[in-house]
Every structure is written in C-alpha cells, then in structure tokens.
Write a structure and sequence with these properties.
The protein has 252 residues and is an alpha+beta fold. The protein has helices at 23-33, 66-74, 113-127, 131-153, 158-172, 196-200, 211-224, and strands at residues 6-13, 38-45, 51-58, 79-85, 102-103, 106-107, 176-182, 187-193, 228-234, 243-249. Strands 2-3-1-4 form a 4-stranded antiparallel β-sheet, with helices on one face. The chain has a 4-stranded antiparallel β-sheet with strand order 7-8-10-9, with helices on one face. Strands 5-6 form a two-stranded antiparallel ribbon. Helix 4 crosses helix 5 and helix 4 crosses helix 7.
Length: 252
C-alpha cells in the first residue's frame, strides 16, 4: 500500500485462551481505542495447540506507534507475548516471523505467479517440447506422494482423501476442481476452473496442461492402485471456459 504507514504484530496466546470467549474482542477494543483501522486479522492454531493472531494496522496520519498499541495488547491477561512486525519498506509488511511456512505439519513454500510461470514456461526455451514430458512426470510424482499423505491423514478413507486433495489444490492456488469419478477405480472426469498452469499459456490454442495433468494422474493412480492416464480435452489456453480431463486405463 504505497504512501501508507503500516504497523503489524504477531500475538501468541496462553494455552487457556483456546477455551476462553472474547479474547479477540479485547484485542480489537484496544486497537480501536487508538483509532487504528485493522487491515488484516488472521488467527491460527499450530499442531502443538499454540494459538496466535497476526494483525496489520493502518497508522497513516495517527500519532500513535506500534509500541504503544503492543503495550496495550500485552496488558490482556490471556496474551503470552507480542512481536512487532516492522514494514520491510514503505507500505509493505510481510510475515517474516513464521519461518518456515507450514502446511499440515510439513514445511511449505509460497510461489507467486511470476515464479510459477518461470518454472513451467521457461523450461521450453531450454529443453524444447520434451519439457512437457518432464513437467508431467514431476507432477505425477507430486500427485502420488501428496495423495498418499492425504490418505494417511484421513485414516485410509479415499473419498475423504479426494476431498482433502481438492481443498489443498485450491488452497495452493492451482485452481478449483470439480470431479465426477469412480473413486475406487480412479476413472472419470475432472474439471479445473482457473488453472494457474494453463492461464500462463493462454493463447496457445491447444491443451497446455502437463504439470497439473501429471498431478491428477498421480492422484488417480494412487486411488486405483494401478497406473492411470489422464487426457486433457478442454483447456482455457485453447479458449475453453475451463480445463477438462479424463482419467482412463492405460492404453484405452
């Protein structure tokens, strides 16, 4: 936010806060008393049941500083500690406290479209058309390993594992899935709305999903317990409203 004076902090709560009511209200009341608009308020609970909140405030035009606001927040009985987030540059705050990022207890990375585009697109400049095969196989093994984890998380329930995979796919920013599948056989139709991969190749006038197609193939193979091929028959890169895939038995 250019020309804005931002401030932020990460609040860690005491364990008993998880069973208490009105803790966030106390925090927002403290902030409101300083006339500071809240731009972002996110809460999280770790696997160790540690509750935290991240707050970003707009301090533009105010005489108050973050030290004063943090002092007020620290006075709340259920707050264990507060760490100030300093802007990395004017108008820009990044959560550098939570390193490394974690998803489902495992280390994760965040990748903006610019970086993902370099990953899926620039390889063609280096390796030519064979890069599509490389992307597919990378995606396939990612699909297999991730789906195995999903099945473990939901205690072997394949229907729930697929729901988890769809949610994580969307959460990661790859796209929005809609499936019509035989779960046990790993066969059927998969639509992806807003595919990040194929968005990069818009104007190619042909189906252009290889990485995501590989991920889906890895999922279907893990569901079925035997290899599944996935064919893309519609694609936003070719002007279609969504990407459509069919999972089928190998050679059929």
């Amino acid at each position: 936010m250019p020309n804005r004076r931002l401030g932020g902090c990460v609040i860690t709560f005491k364990p008993e806060a998880l069973q208490s009511i009105g803790v966030l209200e106390q925090i927002t009341d403290k902030v409101a008393s300083k006339k500071a608009p809240i731009l972002l308020l996110k809460t999280s609970i770790s696997l160790e049941d540690v509750a935290e909140a991240l707050i970003v405030l707009d301090l533009t035009g105010l005489s108050v500083n973050m030290e004063e606001i943090v002092s007020e927040i620290k006075s709340i009985p259920l707050v264990a500690r507060v760490e100030i987030l300093e802007p990395v540059t004017e108008g820009v705050i990044i959560d550098y406290v939570h390193f490394p990022p974690m998803i489902m207890g495992k280390r994760a990375i965040l990748m903006r479209r610019t970086l993902f585009e370099a990953f899926v697109k620039q390889g063609y400049n280096q390796f030519g058309p064979i890069y599509s095969v490389m992307l597919y196989h990378i995606g396939f093994h990612i699909g297999v390993e991730s789906f195995r984890e999903h099945i473990t998380v939901v205690n072997g329930n394949k229907h729930q594992a697929l729901k988890l995979a769809e949610a994580m796919f969307k959460h990661a920013g790859f796209g929005i899935l809609e499936t019509k599948l035989s779960i046990e056989k790993g066969l059927g139709e998969i639509r992806v709305y807003g595919s990040l991969e194929c968005e990069v190749f818009k104007g190619a006038d042909k189906p252009s999903s290889h990485f995501i197609r590989g991920i889906i193939s890895g999922w279907m193979t893990t569901l079925a317990g035997e290899k599944r091929e996935v064919e893309e028959v519609k694609c936003i890169a070719a002007g279609d409203p969504y990407c459509e895939f069919y999972a089928k038995e190998v050679g059929k």
